[in-house]
Amino acid sequence: MKTIIETVGLSRHFGDLVAVDRIDLRVEQGEIFGVLGPNGAGKSTAIRMLCGILAPTRGRGTVVGFDIARDPAEIKARLGYMTQRFSLYEDLTVVENLGFYAGIYGVPSRLRSARIDEVLDQSGLRARADQLAGTLSGGWKQRVALASATIHRPPLLFLDEPTAGVDPVSRRAFWTQIHRLAAGGTTVLVTTHYRDEAERCHRLAFIFQGRLLDVGRPDEIVARRGLRAAEIEVADGNAAAEVLRGCPEVEEVEPYGHVLRVLTRGVDALALAAERVGPLVRGQAARVSVEDAFVSMVRDSEASGERRAA
Known about the structure:
The protein is α/β, with parallel strands linked by helices. It has two domains: 3-216, Rossmann fold (3-Layer(aba) Sandwich), CATH 3.40.50.300; 222-309, Alpha-Beta Plaits (2-Layer Sandwich), CATH 3.30.70. It has helices at 43-50, 72-76, 94-104, 109-122, 138-149, 168-183, 195-198, 218-225, 237-245, 269-277, 290-309; strands at 3-14, 17-28, 32-36, 58-63, 66-67, 79-83, 156-160, 187-191, 203-208, 211-216, 227-233, 250-256, 259-265, 282-286. Strands 6-7-8-3-9-10 form a six-stranded mixed β-sheet, with helices on both faces. Strands 2-1-4-5 form a four-stranded antiparallel β-sheet. Strands 12-13-11-14 form a four-stranded antiparallel β-sheet, sandwiched between helices. Helix 3 (94-104) packs across helix 4 (109-122), helix 5 runs parallel beside helix 6 and helix 8 (218-225) crosses helix 11. The mean pLDDT is 92.
């Protein structure tokens, strides 16, 4: 596989603030690579360095074969970039927006018409080609934004929380298109706060306080945490939750209606719940998610930081 992104010790400081701290990454061609982290974790700073917008303070990196410090213009010419605030011109039609971005991205004039036709068909926008962008729903605007960001066939596509505020049906359609692009050889790097979207990625990187907590396939990351989950229903949910939260093996207890979701590390969640709270109205093992693993890592990292500070 061809390496599209590679960083070694990539860091960025703003005065005394370490926004990105010695990140090592390797992303291969055709991967959908997810970057997860809370607000302020350093995700956007890292992406700005990879896009050639921001120079690293320390470390090095290459993107699509070019050095991020020496060749930012070469990198920018080979990227597609889309955020939740991607700028469409609302007083232009869909096809006019596509034509504008084809020009911005340097698609030769002799090829623009054919390329616009191609992305209209790929994105399902053909019937809306002459509709003003400002009259489209959020999901359709998202399709136009993605088509605009890929009209020059970039080898690498950056998606920065691209589906925030979009309905679930449109989000699913969007991810179907992303997987089609990846299958065609486009590498996609995406930041997201949605658990289901993270689990659609081929691999993930978890970033917190500028540091890389873990990298791997979603199932690998979940397995490494050693977490178990169960869903239980008891006569007194509040009392049961208090008892379980006092157990050192319990990572989290969350109510979902009449059901408590119990997350443990190193022990069987269902067996522990039955032992500590008595008879269950009902109970079953539950799936551990990427979000569970990430929250667990963040809490461990915060606790380690508090111990060091003390």
